[in-house]
Amino acid sequence: MRAPFDTFAMRGLSLTILLTLAACGTTPHKPASNNVPLPSGGKVKVPVRQDPTLPVLPAAGSGRGGYYKDDGPGDNPPANLRDVPDAEVRNEPYSTRSNRPYVVFGKTYTPITDNEPFTQKGTGTWYGKKFHGQRTSSGEIYDMYKMTAAHPTLPIPSYARVTSIDSGEQVIVRINDRGPFHATRVIDVSYTAALKLGFLGKGSHQVVVERLLPADIDAILAARAAPKPVPSVVAISIDTPVETGAVVQPEVSSQMLPVDATVAMPAPAALASGFYLQLGAYSRADNAESGRSRLAPYAAALGTLGVVQAGNLFRLYGGPFSSRAEAARAAANLPESTGIKPIVIQR
């Protein structure tokens, strides 16, 4: 998590008084007590049953987690947090008050207000209980169980796609706060976003942050509103689950294997530049080819299906697409019956 002073100074501040770094006076929400009264008049603390799918983390304030000192997880997180959808994107005007230049620790930050692409790679961290219920730089109340994030310069409000290079997971978050103010940290995400990205316990991961421009948001909204095409074949039943959790490394130069490749793969051809859908990642080449064969009926929408080898992993890609928006539309049109959640990457 970020250093305590920078977060304490920024949470709940009106950006009109950021130069003073005044501390927020909002009182955090207090969790419901789980103290049960005894007949004798005393109380016994009954352990709270938590979602068993959540990682077991040291308590907030214990100083033993990957998060900073007195921050950490809530006492009783809601159930099914892994199923929380990405932030619901929409185009909305930027806040005048929240996008003025400001100074922290002697450094001036100038929020972005243009419509230029923005991509950043660095350490992603998360913040939780210490700020839960307090007012963010946007004026909204911070809820650690929603899909939000803090960034030093991205517009407020805006949206960003965050990809964990370690886990390969990807989420869309709403930027509604400022921070982190640390040389190597590029974004602070909510507890739930960190859970879905796979770095709650570790406290941080290397991530890629991509700003969603108004045109990107329009494309996402259009794809969601468009009627789903009816497949011309029976829905695919994938007997062997697609292996997931592979590291997404857009910068890695790798090779596209021929479409007719099998276990014994001939020499690869160069992979063209463009936007692609990552449809699966496999530890075995034959499993990757099996996944490609199962998705062949959808090749008209997914583009050329090919297997890319990078190190010991074999990734299945569809594409290329001329823009991220076009790739996102193709991903949205992939039937849910395939059980695949494509990731858009640029090579």
* Mean pLDDT rating: 75
Percent helix = 10-25%
Task: Report the end-to-end length measured between terminal Cα atoms.
Answer: 31 Å
Within the largest sheet, what's the order of strands? 5-9-6-8-7-10
Number of discrete helical segments: 6
Give, in order, the helices and strands: HEEEEEEEEEHEHEEEHHEEHE
- Beta strand %: 15-25%
Which properties best describe this structure?
6 helices, 347 residues, six-stranded mixed β-barrel, alpha+beta, six-stranded antiparallel beta sheet, single chain, globular, disordered N terminus, 24% strand
Short description:
This protein is an alpha+beta fold and 347 residues long. The chain is built from 6 helices and 16 strands.
Descriptive notes:
The protein is an alpha+beta fold. The protein is 14% helix and 24% strand. The protein has six helices and 16 strands. The chain has helices at 4-10, 191-197, 214-225, 285-295, 299-302, 324-332, and strands at residues 35-37, 43-45, 102-104, 107-109, 119-126, 148-150, 158-164, 170-177, 185-189, 204-211, 255-257, 269-270, 275-282, 304-310, 313-321, 343-346. The strands form four sheets. It has a six-stranded mixed beta barrel. Strands 12-11-14-15-13-16 form a six-stranded antiparallel beta sheet. The protein has a two-stranded antiparallel sheet with strand order 1-2. A hairpin with a 5-residue loop joins strand 1 and strand 2. The two termini are 31 Å apart. The model is unreliable at 1-34, 44-49 and 230-269 (pLDDT under 50).
